[in-house]
Amino acid sequence: MNGSRSNFTPADRSSSGPETPLASGSEGMLAPLLAPEPPSRPATGGPARLFSILGPVDHRRIELRNTAAPWRMVCALRIDTANGPFNGTGWLAGPRTVITAGHCLHNSAFASGGGGGWARRVTVIPGQSWNKQPFGAVVSTTFSCADPWLQTRDRAHDIGAVHLDDPVGERVGWMKYDALDPSALTRAAAVVSGYPEYAGSYEHLLVAKGPVRASLDGRLYYEIDTTDGQSGGPVWIGDVAAPTVVAVHGYEADATPAGVGPGVNSGALLTPDHLRLIQTWQGG
To answer: CA 178 → CA 27, 103, 165, 169, 170, distances in Å?
Structure first.
């Protein structure tokens, strides 16, 4: 699989490099959901795609240990486009590479007048919590997306990368990721984390856990609550001390095929082709 890169505008170029070692988080703790806080300023922008709470109860929780691994490796994304600001989520996969959903970087909603377009710039904020940015913020104008996403909007390849000049991952670490046997993931417990809208802002790291329902046609389906802004967040399995990202979150229950059944959200399942693509992006 090839990937295309943009520096404001699409370009047909990709580069290869040596494989980068993977690193995983070491600790973390879920905290009870806090009561809504009045925002100090209006929320800006909108989601790259909508998501859904699957039942009458919102099972997401705010993660308070945002400066501990692996939570500090999850990043809030502020996406500037020709059609205004949007919000999303990403996760560090290397010192200078943030993985997110392709539709957070190349989306028809980003182009004024439609037709599809690249984001202009993305601000990456690792481990944000409310108005605190303990590891600072990094602005990038260089992005990549999997070619099947750019060419046909294939949701199984809705994956992209934000390339950073600043090696933020050397300070906060990066997440382990892998392409696992889809049959082994069914009914496994998975976790989705990210920066959705909450209490009038996109500044809280929210986390939820639930079972994987199915894997079909390159997508993973799970019974985990999500809302707008969580697009691009890591879907991981395993203990919090050693999580492994297996998918990139991206879609609401309405995007679930009838064969899978109602009441699940979904993301692009990482495949061996995706792993090679991420390694290529890291080399760039």
So the answer is: 19, 21, 25, 18, 20
Burial of 175 (0-12, 13-18, 19+ CB in 10 A): buried
Q: Domain span at residue 215? A: 177-269
Domain total of the chain: 1
- Who's near 238: CB < 8 A, 6+ residues apart? 244
Look up residue 263 and give its two tokens: 């009441």
Q: How far apart are CA 9 and CA 120, in angstroms?
A: 8
83-129 pLDDT, tens per residue?
999 999 999 999 999 999 999 999 999 988 766 799 999 999 999 99
Is 230 within the bounds of a domain? yes
Output the average pLDDT for the chain.
81
- Is 162 contained in some domain? no
Measured in residues, the chain has a length of 284
Side chain identity, residue 179: A
234 lies in a domain?
A: yes
The enclosing domain of 205 has a CATH number of 2.40.10.10
Query: Distances in Å between the alpha carbon of 120 and those of 3, 10, 15, 79, 82?
Result: 18, 11, 21, 8, 7
The dihedrals phi and psi of 278, each to the nearest 5 degrees, come to -60, -40
Comparing C-alpha atoms, which of 3, 6, 14, 11 is closest to residue 141? 6
CA-to-CA distance for 197 and 88, rounded, in angstroms? 10
Q: Is residue 121 part of a domain?
A: no
